[in-house]
Amino acid sequence: LWTGPATHALLPLLATTAGLHMQLASGSSSHTRRFGHPARGLWLPECAYEPGLERDLADHGVQAFCVDQTGSLGLGSLDQLEPIQTEAGPVAVPIDWLSIELIWNERTGYPTASAYRNSHQRTTYDLKPWDNAGRPYDYAAAIELAQRHARGFVAHSIVRLDSYRSERGRRGLLCCALDSELLGHWWYEGTHWLEAVVQESERQGLELASVSAALAETEAVARPLVPSSWGTPKDLSTWDSPPVAELAFALREAELRTVAATAELARTSGSERSRRRAICERAARELLALQASDWAFLVSRATAADYPELRAAGHRASLDAALVALADSDHDAVDPELRHLAPDLDLSPLIAP
Question: Which residues on neighbouring strands pair with residue 85, listed in sequence order?
Answer without folding.
Answer: 91
